[in-house]
Design a protein that fits this description.
It catalyses: beta-D-ribopyranose = beta-D-ribofuranose. Belongs to the RbsD / FucU family. RbsD subfamily. Pathway: Carbohydrate metabolism; D-ribose degradation; D-ribose 5-phosphate from beta-D-ribopyranose: step 1/2. It is an enzyme of class 5 (isomerase). The chain has a single domain (about 10-120), classed as RbsD-like fold (3-Layer(aba) Sandwich), CATH 3.40.1650.10. Helix content is about 30%, strand content about 20%. It has 4 helices and 6 strands; from the N terminus they run H-E-E-H-E-H-E-H-E-E. The chain has a 6-stranded mixed sheet. The model has no long low-confidence stretch (mean pLDDT about 95).
Length: about 130
């Protein structure tokens, strides 16, 4: 049995398949997700798990070279991203939603803070 890191099998498998340049979306519970696609839905109830909890777990596993968020994102969420060393490029929320079909992995959280979404572009650790 795995004792550290991400224990969710679907999320673990999704992260293991990622390569340089792949996009990973960490989404709040309100972001409209594609009908078909690589979604790992972690939402249990509103607020669980929190965006920051999922982001921290994913960042511990992933090399990230860039990030993107919606221009409508509030200072609280931008602060969460900046505290973790991310400096997201800001695009409109509509443009962010248009990126979803290109994502190699979408992770839905239970977060209910508006615009708590980020697109991470995978880097290489060497």
């Amino acid at each position: 049995m795995k004792k550290t890191g991400i224990l969710n099998p679907a999320l673990n498998a999704g992260l293991s398949r990622l390569g340089h340049g792949h996009l990973v979306v960490i989404a709040d519970c309100g972001l409209p997700l594609p009908a078909a696609g690589p979604v790992v839905d972690l939402a249990l109830v509103q607020g669980v798990p929190r965006f920051t909890e999922v982001l921290d777990a994913v960042l511990a596993e992933l090399e990230v070279e860039a990030s993107t968020a919606a221009a409508e994102t509030g200072p609280e969420v931008l602060g969460w991203l900046q505290q973790r060393g991310l400096q997201p490029v800001l695009i409109s929320h509509e443009e962010l939603k248009a990126v979803l079909p290109q994502a190699a992995l979408i992770i839905r959280t239970g977060e209910a803070t508006p615009y708590a979404n980020v697109v991470l572009r995978c880097g290489v650790p060497f």
